[in-house]
Fold each of these.
Amino acid sequence: MSPRRDPVAGTIAHYSSHAESFREGTWDHDVSQNMAALLDALHARAGAAGQGPFTILDVGCGPGRDLIEFTRRGHVAVGLDGTAEFVEMARAASGCEVLHQDFLQLDLPVARFDGIFANASLFHVPAVHLPRVLGQLHASLKPGGILFSSNPRGNDLEGWSGPRYGVWHSLEGWRRYLQPAGFIELRHYYRPDGLPREQQPWLASVWQKTQDPHPAG
């Protein structure tokens, strides 16, 4: 990492300057498998007594595509993004509450959300800050709440990919962050579905909030 570049500010600046093209390029992406993974876990948690509506925080909501779909399905969706242009787009497109916060300056209510949808977003958090960020997300979930994440997979390498900063987590590496943060793994899978592993660049995983986080080691 170049000492002259701030990972979060640099990544947000890139999205800010490419907001419209990003919206056009990603609006039709099919993430129904990921949404189903979160909602299935929420339904299982609720049991026969409840099928929602659930309150869901879309972390890194971008222009608001998934906020619209969660709302269409009858849930209460709240967005969060660090890019001002995305926040404006998401509010206008979805009519949802959208928080303008970057991942290193979260200010979330305690125990508000049933689920968190972190689709292609948390990999932007530098590894040194990830335990704190996960702790804040953990605190914002209701007891037994569900966290879904999807990240580009790799060998736990970290750094710049062009103008964006990221961490390419392996499954084992991702577990080393989530488990000490107070989550238990419910399932994981690789995307796109149905392809050989070498053609599946995305690692998706579903986690449930347990008791208070505990330090590793």
Amino acid sequence: MKPNHKGSATLFKNPVLERLTHTHIAIPISIFLVIAIGLLMYGFRYGFLDVLSAVGLFIAGWLLFSLVEYMAHRYIFHMEPTNEFKKNIQYTFHGNHHDYPKDKTRLAMPPIVSLFIASFFFFVFKLIFGTMVFGLVAGFLFGYALYLFVHYAVHAYAPPKNFLKQLWIHHSIHHYKDPERAYGVSSPLWDWILGTMPEQRKR
């Protein structure tokens, strides 16, 4: 199916499940930002963070998210549909977005999934990094919120006449010219590092 500027895919026959797959972009962005701020405040209040460590861990978490974003987009959302199960999973999570890139209500996971994702990363990072989790996950969730904002803006608005226009161009190449390149949405950093920059942009 060619990308369609209008319409929306039907993912579930059950109307309740189908409705739950649509969400306003402001809801998950708000959830991630509120949790990120709360983690920083908690870390400062109980002495787990000082200004220097908070800045360093926040940036590290943000950078880590950009890598997770790239890897998930490349290897999970664009996995080869070698069987019916993988085909259904791939289409439900991402394939429908390529068919209907202008569907604004499907540019983010539903709120309940957003809360699950935030909780999952907090507990995993807590096991691995201990009290550094308050700075790391704050940066990680900020990166997630930024990704959602950029992704929504790229699909919902005309490109701005400033340096941010490059993000519009980068993601448009992925959607309309070469879906096997330009996996980074909030940043082309990992496309540069891992060799998936579009050829014309390399030159």
Amino acid sequence: MSEDLELVVFGAHLRGGPLAHQLTDLGARWAGEIRTAPRYRMTVLPTEPPKPAVTRVPDRTSGASLIGHRWLLSPSALGRFLDALPPPMQLGKVEFDDGTWRTGFGCDASAATGPDISEYGSWLAAVEARAV
């Protein structure tokens, strides 16, 4: 049996979110919250349902620390999830506040042109504040 892989999500795939079923249908298990290093921005993509675009900022540029949710999936489930991922969403390495780099959701920076909601620190807080 293969060891499970971790995936960190920041928006509609958060536990309880409208797209979390895409992970749980693949057998994913929720594994807790985690916070990025303060090197990211979160903007709103014009999708249905709305999704965040999480992008890393260049050095010496103001960023924010964002809250995400950790999910554990089998390698084959993560492959199926990645295969179905629509553009401009991407999976890649994300830096966290504990100094680790983990696989997480990101977005092609050229698509991250919507309203910046980084100040809220999380997708859920931005939704609660009706910024989304």
